[in-house]
Design brief:
Elements lengths: L28 E2 L2 E2 L16 H18 L14 H6 L2 H8 L3 H4 L4 H13 L40 H5 L14 E3 L2 H9 L6 H4 L5 E6 L2 E6 L9 H5 L5 E3 L15
Antiparallel strand pairs: 1-2, 3-6, 4-5
């Protein structure tokens, strides 16, 4: 009832970096660059919020660059090594540490995770232990032989919509003649593992119908519709053999999200 009569105005997708405090890289700087915001995993998962940590880490990065590089002559390729210490002394580090155990708690079950997250929020994460992640995300896929197909109802055009109609609301645009920015490293492995064992999962978790297995000369062939890509990076993260690399497309192509998003 709350959505009745409503009109969808936009569409987008993004894979959340849920690793949190434990998954922040030990090294956040390298010669000529720094890892900030979502790139470093600075997401407060219980709040599903990261804009504030992204902005603050950008400020810390700027301070580190000024002190370590620009004030010393601006040598090309120099590393802003103080950035890590600035992060550790900031409220970003404190905030992420407070909620460090929330995501690992869900590994037990949903209800335990909800209960733990509520309790951790109340006590501001002062528990003396740190739970660890026990596997990588791409290691959790089940073979198609162990899975049951989900029958989704047909989109009604009112509350649910077909994928391509939704995709048209994202404003996604790429130069059609550029090389595909989605790189499949070994296409035979994609056939032997992704298709034969897992049933082509990249075609299911992709929210933009980028990946399609089509029949060609009596064989299945993976077609990549890179121009549809929403830059969610699910394929790069979730591919069972880490056989897909998401790279930056040319010319700033991608979804065109407005301020309302």
């Amino acid at each position: 009832p709350m959505l009745a009569g409503g009109k969808p105005i936009s569409y987008g997708a993004r894979t959340l970096c849920e690793g949190g405090f434990q998954a922040v890289p030990d090294k956040l700087s390298f010669p000529g660059g720094l890892l900030v915001g979502d790139c470093a995993g600075f997401l407060n998962l219980p709040k599903i919020k990261g804009n504030h940590t992204a902005m603050k880490s950008g400020m810390l990065a700027a301070e580190a660059v000024i002190e370590d590089v620009l004030s010393k002559g601006g040598e090309h390729g120099k590393e802003a090594t103080s950035y890590r210490k600035r992060y550790e002394n900031s409220w970003v580090h404190k905030e992420l540490k407070q909620v460090r155990n929330c995501r690992p708690a869900f590994a037990k079950n949903f209800y335990y995770g909800m209960l733990y997250t509520g309790a951790a929020t109340v006590i501001n994460g002062i528990e003396p232990w740190t739970l660890q992640h026990h596997h990588k995300d791409h290691e959790t896929l089940k073979p198609i032989s162990q899975s049951k197909a989900i029958e989704y109802p047909k989109p009604d055009g009112k509350l649910t919509f077909d994928l391509l109609t939704n995709h048209s609301r994202s404003g996604t645009s790429h130069n059609a003649d550029q090389p595909a920015h989605l790189k499949v490293l070994d296409r035979q492995k994609a056939k032997d593992v992704n298709l034969d064992i897992y049933g082509g999962p990249e075609g299911k978790y992709c929210p933009a119908q980028v990946y399609e297995w089509v029949e060609k000369d009596g064989k299945k062939e993976l077609v990549i519709n890179a121009q549809n890509c929403l830059h969610c990076k699910a394929c790069d993260i979730k591919d069972p053999t880490q056989n897909i690399n998401w790279t930056v497309p040319e010319g700033g192509g991608g979804p065109n999200y407005n301020a309302a998003m």
